[in-house]
């Protein structure tokens, strides 16, 4: 029959400086199932080193170690973790409990990694603590327990997954004699129930209580003797090992995830100030990205709405080659016939010419300069103007060259400071009297407007009576809604070219301007977003930095978790979750902050409509998770790659 634990010529050496120190010098040893073995030796003789090799926390430099006939050198790290988790139970001189967890939770840890359900493992941990006399103290944290009590918690933890082989390294070394006796009593009971117990000690009195004593001196076994003992072992205190629970698939994954999550939360809560400062980077980053996107969007909408209010589906046609061209040969290019031809096109909704000039307006003693525009009856439709009083000009008035005028609000205010109803009154335009037929309502506009006065009269009246010209300064066309304005522009150009036989005009489309404005705001927004993204990256680097510090600080915790059976992937997951959690909470706070910024902007600039599209919020969350994963990965990996024994040795 193969022995449960079998060491063959095990050597372990450490490199210290440029010297190689042999700590174990060829240890061969067999331990059968159910034995209680004491390993005794002076301090520094290599007992702990041997124990760590027995517990698969450390690997020998040479020699073979078989557990139940299986060579551990052939096992993967995850298989070794499983061995520690399922078969071994460690008891350390310094207890090695996780300080921020309750007694009960400490006992549960190995079961978490074994995939036991939450309720079940809680129950089993309580039972174990109860049987070890700690039923009253399950909720205490290690610092609230005495040494003996802490050691009993660690025994309960060793038994959590069965603890077929109990490995106790100086279990009584830090205890007073009374607590030491208690612990030894428990270990003897465990042996009586069939557990294999290996105790390392430098105390002959402790060793005397085992039935087999192995003496080790300077890394070599000097004696190995059986001693008969008639021990009065108390009746069973602790139930035999629990049947192993190994659910696979989702419940186990979720259980481990939940543990990692709650650990991450605890770790964050334990270092509030540091966590808050780390988060600050993410908060600022996310808040600036979201604010810039959202406020930038609002600004863009505002500008575009302004431009659209002028009309994006209108097109202006001017004589000449470009603005500012006053070549007399082309000045007369646009005619009444052109207007009629344009009006007949299927894609044209309204068309209006304009003959403009600066003239003085007079009423009573008031005499002011104004822009006078000769337009057709369709002009008001082209620009979507409404009247606050009276009506627009009519086609009859065009034909009759009527002396009628539509005035704007500025004119109303200047000429009729305290009159409300002005339709029917006669004003002088230059020297021509004209009857007011309508008052145009105020139109919110970003460009123009201002304080200048504008009045509109029939183009026929303007052409014949005021300016003496039969050609137009401009023709404005409103395209039907379902028509593409680019195509319409091409068709207008072709039509007029055909009619004139040459291109003595040019077109100006508002759409072009909208696109230009859109492009400008987009470029600006992109630039600002880039700056914000940089701040986000800086925040991410902050997270990485803190996580690296955290890993260094918690090396011991990682070691303990690995000793009780955590896989590398469990450790990786825990630290990744921690990084993601920091970023997610930071992201949520950042979004809240940007909400407040949005609200403030709304208060200061009432005209703006700030909206938070769900997509922006979703991508902010996605972004913070991504940052957590990207910047948390390196620290998490360095945690997962720690060697359990190195990690445990770190204080
Ligand atoms: P014991 O537990 O019997 O007191 P250890 O097994 O802890 O002794 O250590 C045995 C010897 O190995 C000691 O001299 C110690 O200095 C040395 N040693 C232990 N661990 C290391 C290490 N990680 N690096 C270098 N030397 C070590
Ligand atoms: Mg030791």
Characterise the protein shown here.
This protein is an alpha/beta fold and 651 residues long. It is built from 20 helices and 20 strands. The protein has helices spanning 47-54, 77-86, 103-114, 118-131, 147-159, 177-192, 204-207, 250-270, 272-310, 336-343, 379-382, 395-399, 409-415, 459-467, 485-500, 510-553, 555-563, 568-604, 614-640, 644-649, and strands at residues 5-16, 19-31, 36-40, 62-67, 70-71, 88-91, 165-169, 196-201, 212-217, 220-226, 314-319, 348-363, 366-375, 387-390, 404-407, 426-429, 432-440, 454-458, 474-479, 505-509. The protein has a 6-stranded mixed sheet with strand order 6-7-8-3-9-10, sandwiched between helices. Strands 12-13-18-15-17-16 form a 6-stranded mixed β-barrel. The two termini are 41 Å apart. The structure holds adenosine-5'-diphosphate (ADP) and magnesium ion.
Concise structural overview:
This protein is an alpha/beta fold and 651 residues long. It has helices at 47-54, 77-86, 103-114, 118-131, 147-159, 177-192, 204-207, 250-270, 272-310, 336-343, 379-382, 395-399, 409-415, 459-467, 485-500, 510-553, 555-563, 568-604, 614-640, 644-649; strands at 5-16, 19-31, 36-40, 62-67, 70-71, 88-91, 165-169, 196-201, 212-217, 220-226, 314-319, 348-363, 366-375, 387-390, 404-407, 426-429, 432-440, 454-458, 474-479, 505-509.
Give the arrangement of secondary structure elements:
Layout: E1 5-16, E2 19-31, E3 36-40, H1 47-54, E4 62-67, E5 70-71, H2 77-86, E6 88-91, H3 103-114, H4 118-131, H5 147-159, E7 165-169, H6 177-192, E8 196-201, H7 204-207, E9 212-217, E10 220-226, H8 250-270, H9 272-310, E11 314-319, H10 336-343, E12 348-363, E13 366-375, H11 379-382, E14 387-390, H12 395-399, E15 404-407, H13 409-415, E16 426-429, E17 432-440, E18 454-458, H14 459-467, E19 474-479, H15 485-500, E20 505-509, H16 510-553, H17 555-563, H18 568-604, H19 614-640, H20 644-649
Helix pairs in contact: 3-4, 3-5, 5-6, 8-18, 9-16, 9-18, 9-19, 16-18, 16-19, 18-19
Magnesium ion binds next to helix 1.
């Amino acid at each position: 029959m193969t022995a449960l634990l079998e060491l063959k010529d095990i050597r372990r050496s450490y490199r210290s400086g440029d010297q190689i120190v042999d700590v174990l010098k060829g240890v061969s040893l067999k331990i059968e199932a159910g034995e209680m073995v004491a390993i005794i030796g002076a301090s520094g003789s290599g007992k702990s080193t041997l124990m760590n090799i027995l517990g698969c926390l450390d690997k020998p430099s040479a020699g073979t170690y078989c557990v139940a006939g299986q060579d551990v050198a052939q096992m993967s790290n995850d298989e070794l973790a499983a061995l520690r988790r399922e078969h071994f139970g460690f008891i350390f001189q310094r207890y090695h409990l996780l300080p921020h967890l309750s007694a009960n939770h400490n006992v549960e840890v190995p079961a978490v990694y074994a995939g036991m359900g939450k309720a079940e493992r809680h129950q089993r941990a309580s039972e174990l603590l109860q049987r070890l006399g700690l039923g009253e103290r399950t909720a205490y944290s290690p610092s609230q327990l005495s040494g003996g009590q802490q050691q009993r918690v660690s025994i309960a933890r060793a038994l959590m997954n069965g603890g077929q082989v109990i490995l106790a390294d100086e279990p009584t070394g830090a205890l007073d004699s009374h607590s030491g006796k208690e612990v030894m009593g428990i270990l003897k009971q465990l042996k009586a129930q069939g557990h294999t117990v290996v105790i390392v000690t430098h105390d002959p009195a402790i060793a005397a209580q085992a039935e087999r004593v192995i003496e080790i001196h300077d890394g070599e076994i000097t004696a190995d003797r059986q001693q008969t003992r008639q021990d009065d072992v108390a009746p069973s205190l602790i139930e035999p090992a629990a049947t192993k629970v190994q659910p696979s698939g989702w419940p186990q994954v979720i259980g481990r995830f939940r543990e990692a999550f709650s650990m991450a939360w605890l770790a964050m809560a334990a270092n509030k100030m540091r966590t808050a400062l780390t988060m600050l980077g993410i908060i600022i980053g996310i808040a600036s990205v979201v604010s810039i996107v959202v406020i930038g969007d609002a600004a863009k909408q505002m500008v575009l709405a302004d431009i659209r209010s002028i009309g994006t589906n209108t097109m202006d046609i001017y004589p000449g080659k470009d603005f500012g061209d006053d070549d007399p040969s082309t000045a007369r290019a646009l005619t009444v016939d052109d207007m009629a031809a344009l009006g007949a096109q299927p894609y044209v909704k309204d068309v209006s010419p304009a003959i403009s000039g600066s003239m003085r307006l007079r009423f009573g003693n008031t005499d002011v300069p104004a822009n006078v525009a000769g337009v057709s009856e369709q002009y008001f439709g082209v620009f979507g103007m409404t009247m606050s009083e009276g009506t627009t000009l009519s086609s009859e008035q065009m034909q009759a060259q009527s002396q009628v005028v539509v005035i704007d609000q500025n004119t109303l205010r200047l000429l009729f400071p305290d009159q409300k109803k002005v339709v029917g009154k006669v004003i002088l335009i230059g020297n021509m009297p004209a009857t007011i037929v309508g008052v145009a309502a105020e139109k919110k506009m970003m460009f123009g407007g201002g304080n200048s006065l504008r009045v509109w009269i029939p183009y026929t009246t303007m052409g014949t009576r005021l300016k003496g010209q039969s050609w137009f300064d401009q023709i404005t066309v409103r395209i039907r809604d379902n028509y593409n304005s680019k195509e319409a522009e091409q068709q207008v150009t072709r039509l007029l070219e055909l009619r004139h036989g040459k291109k003595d005009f040019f077109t100006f489309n508002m759409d072009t301007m909208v696109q230009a404005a859109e492009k400008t705001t987009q470029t600006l927004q992109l630039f600002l977003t880039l700056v914000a993204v940089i701040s986000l990256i800086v925040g991410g680097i902050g997270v990485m930095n803190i996580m690296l510090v955290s890993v260094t600080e918690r090396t011991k915790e990682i070691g303990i978790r690995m000793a009780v059976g955590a896989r590398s992937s469990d450790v990786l997951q825990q630290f990744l979750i921690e990084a993601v959690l920091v970023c997610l909470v930071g992201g949520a706070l950042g979004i809240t902050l940007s909400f407040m910024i949005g609200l403030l902007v709304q208060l200061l600039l009432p005209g703006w409509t700030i909206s938070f599209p769900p997509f922006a919020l979703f991508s902010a969350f996605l972004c913070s998770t991504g940052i957590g994963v990207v910047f948390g990965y390196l620290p998490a990996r360095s945690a997962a790659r720690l060697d359990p024994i190195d990690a445990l040795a770190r204080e």
